[in-house]
Amino acid sequence: SDCEVRKIGILDQKGFIAESIYYHESAIKISTKSEYFYDSAISYGAISDFNKALLSINDCIKNDPQLADAYYLRGIINYNLGLDPCYDLKLSEKLGYKKAREAIEAYCIQ
After folding, report:
1. CA distance 60 to 43
2. Comparing 20 with 4, which gets the higher pLDDT?
3. Of 31, 72, 86, 93, which has fewest CB within 10 angstroms of its CB?
4. Dihedral sign, CA of 8, 10, 11, 15?
5. Cα–Cα–Cα angle for 76, 109, 52, nearest 5°?
6. Distance CA 14, CA 44 (A)
7. pLDDT of residue 73
8. Which residues of 9-39 are buried (b: 16+ CB within 10 A; e: fewer)?
9. Residue in 64, 75, 94, 28 with CA at minimum distance from that of residue 4
10. Contacts of 98 (CB under 8 A, 6+ apart)
11. pLDDT 10s digits, 84-104
12. Could you read off the pLDDT of 18-55 as tens digits, one per residue?
């Protein structure tokens, strides 16, 4: 519900990551909305669990393959896993996510 989504956002902002992950996972069981997977990936990334973050962001992209910031986030997650982030960062930029340019310049050989 919208109330649960607002609660998740408040938990994220206040640094209650474990509680936030619990609510994200609960929301995903009820609905497969892309934003739930996206927010779950953010929460897992915040505690450096990049393997779970990658699983969540992959589900997000599977549900919404045009979500530019999801590719950006997957690129950042891949970078943190020691993988090449450039394909996702460049796709993110191509889809219109302006913040991707800075990451491309920092992490990708031009």
Report:
1. 14
2. 20
3. 31
4. positive
5. 20
6. 15
7. 95
8. eebbeeeebebbbebbeebbeeeeebbbbbb
9. 28
10. none
11. 999 999 999 999 999 999 999
12. 566 555 565 555 556 778 788 888 888 888 899 999 99
Report the SS3 class of residue 36: helix
**Three-state secondary-structure class, residue 25:** helix
Find out whether 8 and 39 touch, Cβ atoms under 8 Å.
yes
Q: How far is CA 34 from CA 4, 9, 39, in A?
A: 15, 15, 9
Cβ atoms 54, 79 nearer than 8 A? no
Instruction: Tell me, letter by letter, the H, E, C secondary structure of 43-76.
Output: HHHHCCCHHHHHHHHHHHHHHCCCCHHHHHHHHH
pTM: 0.76
